[in-house]
């Protein structure tokens, strides 16, 4: 997560934790790190609490985030694809299986 910002996120807690404490802490995280969250989606953190203890632990949590940083990954993969396609690297494996070179050209621009 380098240059992206969170659109939404969810934190799921298991164990003996007060829901008020969870929500207060998550609100605190969002306020302290507001630059990492988009401002045009208010209340974009969801919390859930399961009172059942995880086996062997007193508490656990899971974080799921929807971030704009994925676009960096797609851009990098697209650049690598273009560089390899320009050199026609590994292309013979695909054309030998029946694919047409035009399919790769179309994929590059989509």
From TrEMBL:
GO terms for molecular function: GTP binding; GTPase activity; structural constituent of cytoskeleton. Residues 2-77 form the Tubulin/FtsZ 2-layer sandwich domain. The keyword Cytoplasm applies. One of its GO terms (cellular component) is microtubule. The keyword Manganese does not apply. It comes from the Eukaryota. It is found in: Cytoplasm, Cytoskeleton. SUPFAM superfamilies: Tubulin C-terminal domain-like. GO terms for biological process: microtubule-based process. Keywords: Cytoplasm, Cytoskeleton, GTP-binding, Microtubule, Nucleotide-binding. Belongs to the tubulin family. This is Beta-tubulin.
């Amino acid at each position: 997560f380098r240059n992206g910002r969170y659109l939404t996120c969810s934190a799921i807690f298991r164990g003996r934790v007060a829901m008020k404490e969870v929500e207060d802490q998550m609100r605190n995280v969002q306020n302290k790190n507001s630059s990492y969250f988009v401002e045009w989606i208010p209340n974009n953190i969801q919390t859930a609490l399961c009172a059942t203890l995880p086996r062997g632990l007193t508490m656990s949590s899971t974080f799921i985030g929807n971030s704009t940083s994925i676009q960096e990954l797609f851009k990098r993969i697209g650049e690598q694809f273009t560089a390899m396609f320009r050199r026609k690297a590994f292309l013979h494996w695909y054309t030998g299986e029946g694919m047409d070179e035009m399919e790769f050209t179309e994929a590059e621009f989509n």
